[in-house]
Structure formats: structure tokens, C-alpha cells
Amino acid sequence: MKELKRIWMDGKFVKWQDANIHVLTHGLHYGYAIFEGIRCFSTPKGPAVFRLREHLERFQNSAKIYRMDLGFSLKELEEACLELVRQNGVKESYIRPIAFSAYGEMGLNPLGSRISVAIASWEWGAYLGEAGEKGVRATVSSWVRVDSRALPVQAKCSSNYANSALAKMEAIAAGYDEAILLNSHGVVAEGPGENIFRVKDRVLSTPPASSGILRGVTRDSIIQFARDMGMTFYRNDSTKEELYTSDELFFSGTAVGVAKIREVDGRKIGNGEWPITDRLKKLYEDAVHGRAKPYEKWLTYVKA
């Protein structure tokens, strides 16, 4: 990782190597932490953060669900993200806000702990790398997506991602690039850190929120693109067998962008072409890099 300059912690910028926490930090032991993933892209007008407000609104909503008082307004968090990018001087970066119960009294009740908020930023390429370009080899995980009756899936909470990590490790150990999780009812939910879209007979669909997914900001962007392009689109449940018989499949997410899925459980998807995925991927790339005027409203420019 390239040496970076600063991390924002509780309202102050500190050196990267000084952004430390105590080993008895409450959130480290009990998973009481929420976070976001945001990207800053290079554009003809300079670095710009894609859908910054929407990500931070979800961050605030996650905090509300978990009874956390962040202690910072949306505007303060926005400016902290932008100033962090300015200070670190990286044109394209991944931005990670996180809030967690800090060092203090141990025990399962986090309400007595102080909430610490930090924001880090670093250079991070496409999450699935080359596989995301040539097509991901995925497998349906034996692990079930966490149920909303157990943990609130609409909160981007660190504890939820232990479930994702188990699915990811299982997929890698079996020789695949990524996992796909079903929910407790046996229908498709999402990837470990991505939403999933399906194309069949030129109809685009994605699992609804009721399937146990996290409502992705990139997912929302893809849905808006599809509507603007006049595509037939539905939010509906699908089964494992329907994954196998798709004409096209792709993942979406802040980390992954738009990544084609070429195989699921050894079954080749479609005929090896992704006409709809390619159109949506191009529009996404144009939007985040400031080349699509109708979506420039989603960019927050990092002014010098």
C-alpha cells in the first residue's frame, strides 16, 4: 500500500501510523461497529466522490438502527471525507467511514461505551480484479445469508460481515472467485459484499430488499440507469436454478463496480456475451468518471 498521509479520527486528522485503538476496544470484541464504502474517482474536473451523500445517509441510518450517537452531522462527515482526500492527494481512492464502541467498560451492553468515528482512505483497485473483467466464477454458498430477524440487514454492521467472510473463504477454498448467498427461504440474496443482477429474455431483475439484501448505492444507480435506458426491470426473487439458466448475471457494488459472472457452480452462464451488462457497465464507468452529464449530480468534486 502506498504510504498515505492522514486518517480522520473523532474530528482530527492524524498520521496513518498513529491511528490506533486499544486492544480492549468494545467494538473489536462484540462487533458493535458500522461502516461505509465510498469511492473517489478521477474526472475531467478533478477528483470526485460518487454519491457521497447517499452513502453517508446510509451510514447515519445504520447508526440509528444500532442506537449509536455519531456526534457529527452529515455536513461534518461530508467535509471530513473531502478534506481527507485533499490531504492524502490521491486522485482515485476508496473511502471507509467507520463508527464503533470505543475502549471502556466491557460487557454485552454497548450503550455505556463512547462511540468513536474514523474515516480512512487508500488506493484500492477493482475488488475482484481480473476476474471482474473477464467474468467471475461463482458458487452458491452452503452458508445462508444472515436473517433480518437475527440482525438488521439494512444496517451495514461489521458483525454481518462475519457471515460474508465465511462464504468468501468457502468459495476461494473450492477454487472459485466469489460466493452467492441464498437466504433462509432458499432464494437468492446477494454476494458477500455485492448485490446481484440477472438478465433473462432481455428482462433485468434483482432481489428485493425483503430477500435480506443490503440496499446498495451502486445497485440503486444500476436500477436508475436501466429505467433511463427504457429496460424492462423487476425486483423479484429467484432460485438457484434460475441463476444457472440466466442469459447474463453480474455483481454490483462500490468495491466491485459492475462485474460479470460467467459461471455458477460449474455451469456456464448464457452464451458468453453480456450485451445488457456491458451497456450498464459502460454507463456506470462514464457516470463515476464524470463523462455522463445526466448523472453529474451524483458527483461531489474535491475542490483544492
Describe the structure concisely:
The chain is built from eight helices and 17 strands. By secondary structure, the chain is an alpha+beta fold. Strand 9 (178-182) and strand 10 (188-190) form a beta hairpin.
Describe the structure.
It is built from 8 helices and 17 strands. Strands 8, 9, 10, 11, 12, 13, 14, 15 and 16 form a 9-stranded mixed beta sheet that branches. Strands 1, 2, 3, 4, 5, 6, 7 and 17 form an 8-stranded antiparallel beta sheet that branches. The chain has 304 residues and is of the alpha+beta class. The longest helix has 15 residues, at 74-88. 28% of the residues lie in helices and 27% in strands. It has 2 domains: 6-122, 2-Layer Sandwich (D-amino Acid Aminotransferase, Chain A, domain 1), CATH 3.30.470.10; 129-288, Alpha-Beta Barrel (D-amino Acid Aminotransferase, Chain A, domain 2), CATH 3.20.10.10.
- Provide the CATH architecture of the largest domain: Alpha-Beta Barrel
- Rg calculated over all Cα atoms: 19 Å
What share of the residues lie within helices?
25-40%
Number of domains: 2
Q: CATH superfamily membership of the largest domain, which one?
A: D-amino Acid Aminotransferase, subunit A, domain 2
Q: Detail the poorly predicted runs.
A: none
The main sheet comes to: 9 strands, mixed
The shape is globular
Please count the beta strands (DSSP E, at least 2 residues each). Answer: 17
Proportion of residues in extended strands:
25-35%
